[in-house]
Every structure is written in C-alpha cells, then in structure tokens.
Amino acid sequence: MKKTLLLSAILLGTVGVAHAADPLSAWNDTAAKQAIEEWVQNATNKDRSTFIPPAKRYVVFDNDGTLWPEAPLTFQLQFAIDEVKRLAPQHPEWKSDPIVSAALNDDVKTIAAAGEKGIIRLLELTHSDITTEEFAQRVGNWVDSHRDSRFGCRYDQMGYQPMRQLLDYLRDNGFKTWIVSGGGIDFMRVIAEKMYGIPPEQVIGSFSIGEFSLTDNGTEIRKTMKGAFLDDAAAKPVAIHLFMGQRPVAAFGNSDGDLAMMQYTASNPDYKTFGLLVHHTDAEREYAYDSHPPASGKLIEGLKVAQEKGWTVVDMKQAWKTVFDPALCKK
What we know:
- Pathway: Amino-acid biosynthesis; L-serine biosynthesis; L-serine from 3-phospho-D-glycerate: step 3/3.
- Keywords: Amino-acid biosynthesis, Hydrolase, Magnesium, Metal-binding, Serine biosynthesis, Signal.
- It holds the Pfam family HAD.
- This protein has helices at 2-20, 31-44, 75-87, 98-104, 108-113, 115-127, 132-145, 161-172, 185-196, 235-243, 259-266, 301-309, 316-319; strands spanning 58-61, 130-131, 176-184, 203-206, 211-215, 218-223, 250-253, 274-279, 312-315.
- It is α/β, with parallel strands linked by helices.
- It starts with a helix and ends in a 12-residue tail after the last helix.
- The model is unreliable at 1-12 and 14-19 (pLDDT under 50).
C-alpha cells in the first residue's frame, strides 16, 4: 500500500511539473498557440535559416485591447473622467463646460459624440499644467483606489493572463518586448513594468512636448498639450523608427489602428516575421466586438489583411483558458 501511494505521489508530482513547465499554460492547444511556439523555435534555432540574432529580436505590442481591455472605455479615458470628478470642486469655472458636465454624469455618449475635440478637452484638464512627477503620482493613486465597475478588479490586475505569459515566454527566448500604443506614454509608464515587466524606456505612446525649468528645489518638466503626437495607425511605424531605431520582427495588436504597425513589421526584409491579432469574441469573460466596438478598437480591415498575409488571429473565446489571472481578478 505504501509503495502504491509513493508511486502515485511521484506520478502526480511529475504531471504537476510537466504542467507547470508550460510557459503558455493559459492558452488552449489551438492553432494560435502552435503558431507562436513554432515561430519562436524557428527564430531561436541557430541551425535554421529562420534564425534571428538576439540583437534583432525586437517585438512590439499594442496595449489597449491587446494587453488589457479597452471596453467599455480605455482605462486612460476612465482615469481622465475620474480625475475631472475629483478636481471639479476646486474649479467652479468648469461648470459651464459641457464635456465636464458629461464626465460628472458618466455621460459617455456625449463624450463620444464630441470626438477627438472632447477627448483633448478632458486631457487638457487632467493631463497638462502639471509636473511629470505629480502626474505619475496621480495615476498611481488612481490605480490604487479605483476598480473596474464590471469585474471589481483594480485596473493593474486586468492584464490578460495569456498575453502576460506570452511576454514572459518571448523574453525567456531572448526577445526584447516593447509597447507601442495610442495610450499616453506617461500614463502607461507608471504601470507597465509592474504589470508586464516592460521598463519605461520600452514604452512608446502618444505624447506632447513638456517644458523644462529650474526651480528652487532643482528642476522640473511640466506637461503641456503642445506638439501633441497621437501614436496610432500610420503614426505607429513612425514612432517605432523614432524610439527603437530598427524594424521589429513581430507585432501584436487587436484593431485596425495596429494595422500599419503590423504591415511595417511584416515588411522586414531580413527575417521571417510574426503577426498576431487578438479578436475579442468572449462576451462572458470579457467583451465581444470587432466592427462595432463599445468605444475604440474597431477591427475590420485587419481581419482581411491577416487572412491575406497569414497572420495569426486569436479567437479569445476559443484560444484562451483564462482571460484574467484568477489569482488577481475574479474573471
């Protein structure tokens, strides 16, 4: 009997080790997972013509909708709305502003109808005329004190577990991971390292030109709205060239706003590249959309090009065992 129990323990222990050894354990064994593993194996095997030298293994990830949700609103827009609510009592002059009124009443339809002009107004009120240090502190305070209304989780707990594993898997195989997103660079840099293991210098996003000055206590950079650069669509390859200085070998996105970045990557003349689109198909565990997203993340042209180019399309409902890490977030 003791021998049987010992043998069972050994066998169970072996199975447990085998399961733990799977770096993509949050992925189901679908064609998407197989494509990722095959490309990485080919890219890291020196004996194959598909080998990519470590110095060239730069890979880029969109953030909103690719590494964390962007429905029903992007997290940064939710931050801006919450900041307007927090700051409004200190600014009675805001009362007559319709965008402020919409934010105070959670009137997302009015904010959406205002388009880019409305978003810029919210950013003016919450992202400018403030030092970079104070802005980072405000973002940190918001992350610590606010939770997603549907899932009840802190926003920094809502990174997609399969994509976080993918980031680790790539880094373990010698790849350098970058974020290239339409989100604000200063906003993402506050939480990217903690959430994804991506340091601030490997985060590329939308930005404006700050103003440097000497102060009684030293120096400061103050955020402004001058020279705003929206890192989306055709601007993404431009930003990649500006910040990275070389063409990536893999790109991961979820929307038509990522298409130019993926096309730029796929056109790398020196290496066999990889492209992946996250398709939001899971209304129960996250959200389901493509052509008609709740706010942003439209995916129409990207699906067509993915089929033409042979890029991997991840059906979230089918490909992922989990969406959020159950140890952090309940769904």
